[in-house]
Amino acid sequence: MEAKVIQSQEEFQDVLNRDASFYLLKHSLTCPISARAKQEYDRYSLDTQIPMYTLYVQEARELSNTIADRYEVRHESPQALLFENNQVIWNTSHHDITEAVLREQETRFNQ
Question: Model's pTM, two decimal places?
Answer without folding.
Answer: 0.94
